[in-house]
Specification:
The protein is an all-alpha fold. It is built from 8 helices and no strands.
Length: 162
């Protein structure tokens, strides 16, 4: 092989490797968002983790990674990322909302798809902290659903023969 072909091969390897590596925190974050949009949560987790290595206080990367973890049913890791956000920003409504959802889904049993009892405190706190009307409506709907389901269960239990 000539020197030129060796250099071309090395350059090709370096270029292909650079497509999997982000130079800056923002690059890694954006690549993670792109992976989420492409429904590739595993790769998104890697890019958000890379952004967090570069900047451990990148709250948006933590929240996005928590979503990717949740979408891959890794609820303890998703909750841990929300906890990290709340350590840095105790009034972060989105972290409370996400953690409430992940607690609800993570603690659900086979008979229920969402355990609101464990999610309720975080969802209520998120509702108090958020200024986003859409998010408030979503939380209200979740809490209303829980109240309806709870009332229905009490009614069904009361109707059972003693």
């Amino acid at each position: 092989m000539t020197k030129l072909s060796i250099l071309a091969s090395v350059f090709a390897v370096l270029m292909s490797a650079s497509s999997c590596y982000a130079a800056t925190t923002q690059d890694a974050f954006q690549m993670g968002l792109s992976c989420m949009a492409a429904d590739n949560q595993g790769q998104a987790i890697k890019f958000f983790s890379e952004a967090l290595v570069k900047n451990p206080r990148h709250i948006k990367a933590l929240l996005q990674r928590s979503q990717a973890y949740a979408l891959t049913n890794q609820f303890p890791k998703a909750i841990s990322d929300c906890d990290a956000v709340l350590t840095m920003d105790p009034k972060n409504a989105e972290a409370y909302f996400q953690r409430g959802l992940y607690l609800g889904f993570g603690n659900a049993s086979g008979t229920q798809i969402f355990a609101l009892i464990s999610a309720r405190p975080d969802l209520q706190k998120a509702a108090r902290l958020t200024s986003d009307r859409q998010r408030k409506a979503e939380i209200s709907e979740l809490l209303r659903y829980h109240n309806t389901e709870t009332a229905g269960q009490v009614h069904r239990l009361a109707a059972l023969p003693q």
